[in-house]
Structure formats: C-alpha cells, structure tokens
Amino acid sequence: MTYCSAMAEVASGGERVREGEAALARGAWAEARAIFEEELEAGETLEALEGLSWAAWWIEDVPACLDARERAYRLGRQTGDRRRAAMMALWLGDDHLIFRGEKAVANGWFQRAARILEGLDPCPEHGWLAALQGYMALGEGDTARARELAARARELGRRLGVVCLEMFGLAVEGVALVNEGQVEAGMRCLDEATAAALGGEYEQIVPAGWTCCLLIGACERVRDYDRAAQWCRKVEEFSRRMRINFVTGTCRAHYGAVLTWHGNWPEAERQLTEATEDLTANRPSWSGAALVRLADLRRRQGRLAEAEELLSQAQGNALAPLGMAELALDQGDALAARDLLEPLLRRLPAENRTLRAHPLELVVRAHLAAGAIESATPHVSELRAIAAAVGTQPLRAAVSLSEGLLAAAGGDHETARERLEDAVELFAASGAPFEMGRARLELAAVLVALDREDAAAREATVALRRFDEIGAAAEIARARELLKRLGVAPQARRAPHRDAVLTPRQLEVLRLVSQGLTDNEVAVRLVLSKHTVHRHVQNAYARLGCCSRASAVAKANRLQLL
User: Fold this and answer.
1) CA-CA distance, 441 to 457, in Å (whole number)?
2) Alpha-carbon span 341 to 322, nearest angstrom
3) Digit-coded pLDDT (tens) for 111-130
4) What is the 8-class DSSP label of residue 318?
5) Half-sphere exposure of residue 68: CA atoms within 13 angstroms, side-chain side
6) Going by C-beta distance under 8 Å and a sequence separation of 6 or more, which residues neighbour residue 222?
7) What SS3 class is residue 522?
8) HSE (CB half, 13 Å, CA atoms) of 252?
9) How far apart are CA 186 and CA 421, in angstroms?
10) Angle between helices 288-301 and 245-261 (to 10 degrees)
11) Higher pLDDT residue, 342 or 25?
12) Least crowded by CB within 10 Å, which of 139, 146, 264, 537?
C-alpha cells in the first residue's frame, strides 16, 4: 500500500472504516473519531488506529493523536508491516516537531523510520522520510542539507508517480533556495508546487496545505507582498473548500500582514482578528502566527501596551523576538532591542540570508539609537548584500533607509539626504505608507541639519498626512512635534470625495482587484465581460495617476477609498 501523504490513506478495513474515511474526507472530524473509536472497541486494527490518529490530529487533540499513532506503530511492528510502521514513526516525529517543538524526539522517530526501511525497495516512505528530514533541516538553518534531502524526495516522488511527494519535496527545496538568497529560483519551485496543490493534483490534502503555508511564508520573508496577495486569496478559497482549518487561519494571518504593509489597516484588523480567533479555537499551537502579526498592527497604530500583551501570548513563535525588538525600539529602549537581536543573529547561519534581513535592519536601528555607529556599519553592509541578491523593492528600501540613518549618525547629512530620498521613493513604489512616512520624518530631520527648514516642513507635512490617513497615532504625534519645532501649524486633513476620484463601478472593481482577483475572476463575480472589467481597471489607473494594479490599490488605500 502507498502512503503518499500526511493523511496516510486508511486501507479498506470494513464498512465502518470506510465510513470513517469518508467522514475524514468531508471534514467531519468528530464523526470520524466516533466511528474509529467504535471500531476499535471490537479490537485493534491498523486501519482504525490510523483513522483515529488523523481524526484527533485535525481537532488538535495531541495526546489522543500520539497515542493512536504509537499503538498503530506497535501493531505494525508486531504484524511485520514495516512500511506502515515506518510511516507511523514518521508522523510521530512530525507531530512532536510541529505540536511540541521537540526536535530530539522528532529526530529519534525519523531515525527509527530510517532503520525500519533499510533493505526495502524504494517506496514512498523513503521519500517522506527525506522530505520531513529536509523540512527539519530548514528549521535548523541547514539549507544545504534541506536542499539535498528535498531533491531526493522530489526525485523519488517523480519516479514512483506520487505527485504530492514530488511537489512537497519541490516546495521544501524552494524554501531552502529562498533562504539562501536564490529567490527567483526558489519562488519558481514554490509557485509550481502550489499550483499543483490548488489544481487538485495532490493525492492527499495535508501536504497540499503544508505547501501553501511554505509559499506564503517565503513571500512574506522576502517582502514579496504582490506575490503573497495573489496567492493568499486562492489559498484561502482552497482551504475553505477543503476544510483545512490550519491553512485558512495561517493564510489569513499572512494576508493580514500584506494588508498592514499596504496601509489597509481596517481590513488587516478584520483578517488578523478572525485569524487569531480561528487558530485559537481550531489550532492553538499555530495561533502565534496570527498573534505576532496582530501585535505588529497594534504597534504601528501606537497601541503599544496591546502589542506587548499579544506578543506575550505568542511566546515560542519564531517572529515574537523580532516583534519585541521593534516594540522596544518604538518605546525608546535601544539596548533591550539590541539584547534581543544580537543572540538571534548569532543563531542564524550566514547562508540563511533572507531570514537574517529583518533582524539586521532592526539591529542597525538599535545600534544607531545607542550611539554605536561602528557596530552598525557591518550590519548595513550585510543587509546591502542580501538586498542585492533578493532584489525586492521593500528590501532595497530598507537598505536605503539603513544607509541614510548610518550616514546621518556619522554627520554626513548630504549622503543621508540622498539615501533617505531613495528610501521614500522605494517605499512609495512598494505601497508602504507607514514605512514611507517614517522615512520622510527621518529625511525631514536631515534637512533641518542642512538648514533646509522649508523642505523639512514639506516632508513632515506629507508624512503627517500619510499617518493620519492610516491611523498611526504615535507617528502622528512625532510629525506634529517636528512641525511645531519648525513653527508650522499642521492643517487638518480633508478626505477626498469618492465621487471625485473613482466611479462606484470603478471602486467595486478595484476592491476585488485589491483582494487578488484577476480580470476574469472579477468579470465572473460582477457578471461583466472581461473587456468591460479591463476598461474599468484602466480608467481607474488614469484617475489615480497609476500604471499598475499594485500602485492603484496602494493609492486607493491611502485615499481610504477601498
């Protein structure tokens, strides 16, 4: 029998087992659990134990899941079914890794599976062993080993005709490449694997969900927010249709981060709040993914106490230390931020380039705020090299900002002005109003040092408008304070008339475009022709003075039209 996925097909073991399998397939986890438990009352079978383990896995009853898998493992060993015993060992290892973070226990089960499989002809279980060990290597920062193992799994899946194994291996390989800075090649792998998953090619559902999570996480890591937005809606539709709760929640969390970046904070709040509630109820061990991103939104809004509380609930999530460091910087505690970031950077191998980018950006700010210019300099150099390899606009903007801050701290205000102007332009092109506003305030401070107070006032005024539009309370106060020092009374913002900007139909179309829908999909949703939708999109571009979907959506968000 072939076990090609995390749902390890339950073999036909009687009518009740088939009923339990059908309940699993339609997402009726409690019903499936009851059926398998009833079947086990008559005696243990591998089929019923495997089915029970998956029913418990889906509702995150971890003790029950582990117990059923261990019993299935023992029964497989007793009956001489080496492949099924090895498969249970693999899922036990994965469960200990994902649910409990117990790497040593996970490794023990993986090694046990490897020994059980020794001497057998190549089979899918060999491939899943390589794939899961590759995924574990990603978490340990060993990208070279992750690529090697993932390629082994991919090739074995191809030879055996197991698409889910082949494509999941490709996805792990893609993440390893992205982490090393080979972003274009890595994203090609992830795009293909996700297309196969959403296209229904995976024989089973759980590895399809894992693949989607790997793609969206990689997009966010390299700040490829346009790609993330395109995939997020597709993945969410798929996960809702297939009842994959953990993908629905994590996808919404990632999409919330995209919306936060683009300044659509009301919609980001809705997505992140619902993702937090969804994951807390259905997948508690995954809830940190939503909590840290909701905390980031709260920090940007100036609600620092709420951000701190959310981060305290997300302890154990890999992004929580970064969130705490950013919070410390906003609270003026540069040393606390540095103490969080330096150990993190020491633990991240140099070859994990994209994983190092965000902490490098923050540690530069921390060192400069503490007056340690020499300590910041090598970090800026490393960040520059990463951005050159990755190539996304947001990362290039972060480098320009860091270079500008470093030059300003060293007294080279003319260079600082040039770099900060570059940062403003790049953040604007990336559709990032919060970051753009902050860069403008830094530019205004440099212009003051250059005795160009009129120009400084203009930059601070534009920054204030942007912060006012998105509701960044703390930054509004900073901008007002700077304008006050410059002797400028900030004017209250006047919201534009919607009718003077876009027509109701153009707004309707652009809202759907902002959700990642293509012209074809918008046409279906609104019962229009594709040509008509395309005309509305082009007219919206003209009215907004934009030339792309991303820039039009970003500007409409800044004008609070969507």
Assistant:
1) 10
2) 7
3) 999 999 999 999 999 999 99
4) T
5) 24
6) 178, 183, 354, 357, 390, 392, 395
7) helix
8) 27
9) 31
10) 20
11) 342
12) 139
pLDDT at 562 over 90: no
403-471-366 Cα angle (round to 5): 30
Q: Do 342 and 372 contact (CB within 8 A), yes or no?
A: no
472: its two tokens? 């960044």
Burial classification of residue 406, based on how many CB atoms lie within 10 Å of its CB (0-12 exposed, 13-18 middle, 19 or more buried): buried
Residue environment code for 23-42, b if the CB has 16+ CB neighbours within 10 A, otherwise e: bbeeebbebbbebbbebbee
Residue 58 is encoded by which pair of tokens? 């889906």
Please tell me what DSSP assigns to residue 105.
H
Q: By the 8 A CB rule, do 444 and 459 touch?
A: yes
Spatial CB neighbours of 143, under 8 Å, sequence gap ≥ 6: 137, 176, 177, 179, 180, 349, 351, 352
Which value, to the nearest 10 degrees, does the dihedral of the CA atoms of residues 175, 296, 258, 540 take? -160
pLDDT band at residue 159 under the 50/70/90 scheme: very high
Q: Which tokens in the block code for residue 488? A: 């400028």
Let me know the angle formed at the C-alpha of 357 by 345 and 299, rounded to the nearest 5 degrees. Answer: 95
Terminal C-alpha separation, the chain: 52
Distance CA 399, CA 403 (A): 6
b/e sequence 78-115, b meaning 16+ C-beta within 10 Å: eeebbbbbbbbbbbbbbbbbbbeeeeeebbebbebbbe
pTM as predicted: 0.76
Q: Kindly state the percentage of the chain with pLDDT values over 90.
A: 64
